[in-house]
Amino acid sequence: MANALQNITGLDNAGKLVAHICAVLWCAFLQIAMVDLAYRPEYLKAAMFQRGFAASAELAVLVPLFLATNRPDVEFTTEYVDDPKVAAYLLIYLFYVLVTCGELAFMCGRTARRNWGIRPWSSVGFALSCVSAALGLAYAFSKGSYIIFYTLDNPWPLKAEEVVSPTLSGLAVLFLFSGLTIPMIGALRERLRQKKALAGE
What we know:
Shape: elongated
Number of strands: 0
Largest sheet: none
């Protein structure tokens, strides 16, 4: 898919740029959704503006830096962090992921605790989402710290980083999918139970 996108647009590494833009927007929308659940209603409008502004500022920095750095012999991965612009791009992206996942872990954990014993399906979903955000934190910390230690000429083996970071990222996506799906299953079961109860009257 990345190759097809690159062929269509004629832009090297187009798939990576689109993936990072989608990740930034996804994190921002998740933050806004959780703020609606976790904070007071009077804070919602300001919180939405703050998260939207942060995502816009992130993209305003990332996209020009990507375009200034992008060329056929470069990939935006840890294998190419010997290029200072690639390292800077990845660190800016990972810092955003680190901050947003940290807030999401806090909000999901608090919401899971509030729903415990009241809405069990929702509570489990938020708990899994909290685990997902924690894995996202670990991913950003793992990849980001590798880049920092690389610039200090003391990194751990690249092959190890290329195994650990994708594994953490994949697990984060899996837990997030589960966390978003389980409450819907619980709501569906409740509706079916109510329909059966009404049919039996």
